[in-house]
Design goal:
Blueprint lengths: L10 E4 L7 E4 L1 H4 L2 H15 L6 E5 L3 H12 L2 E5 L9 E8 L2 E8 L8 E9 L3 H11 L5 E9 L15 E6 L1
Parallel strand pairs: 3-4, 3-7, 7-8, 8-9
Antiparallel strand pairs: 1-2, 5-6
Helix pairs in contact: 2-3
């Protein structure tokens, strides 16, 4: 099995979460041990030797690949959560979504100026959530920030909403 073969294992769910949306369900891919191994190896390969100290995984599916990357790279894992889910002092950023306004939070002590950070989510669609997470992490003044996705929906052009000066990678593109 090769990286592009992973697409065959991703389930398409029409009209979820609303009519007209084609949802790419990665759970059918990650339940396959070989696919999970290939995904893990590719995520590690992308950032090996770049001095990464923290992986920020965006709730909730970003926790899966983010935790794997943190383990594989010997880095710490930081959850980016919806409001009210983190138990200590947080910093937060509101952002617009196609159906309203949402917010993302990090613990205020999660990132330091010495950190090299990878922001990770399972899928890039419009980029709003990742852009908000980037702004939040950037405000904490780390040394460097990378952005990573497992899947990118190129037709939605979500990269245009992400910082041009940041290295962005996706394992699979649709």
């Amino acid at each position: 099995m090769h990286l592009e073969d992973l697409k065959k294992l991703i389930r398409d769910v029409p009209d979820f979460p609303s009519k007209g949306i084609m949802f790419r369900d990665l759970t059918t891919m990650i339940k396959n041990p070989e696919a999970l191994r290939i995904m893990s190896e590719e995520l590690k390969r992308l950032y090996e030797g770049k001095g990464v100290t923290k992986i920020v995984g965006i709730e909730s599916r970003g926790f899966i690949g983010g935790s794997i990357m943190a383990y594989e790279l010997g880095a710490g894992f930081v959850p980016a959560r919806k409001p009210g889910k983190l138990p200590s002092v947080t910093v937060k950023k509101a952002f617009a979504k196609e159906y309203g306004v949402d917010m993302i939070e990090l613990h205020s002590d999660a990132i330091s100026h010495d950190d090299v950070v990878v922001l990770h989510d399972d899928l890039l669609a419009t980029g709003g959530t990742m852009a908000a997470c980037y702004d939040l992490v950037k405000s904490m003044n780390p040394k460097k920030i990378y952005i990573n996705f497992i899947v990118e929906l190129t037709a939605l052009d979500g990269r245009k909403n992400l910082p041009a000066d940041c290295e962005i990678s996706s394992l699979l593109k649709y």
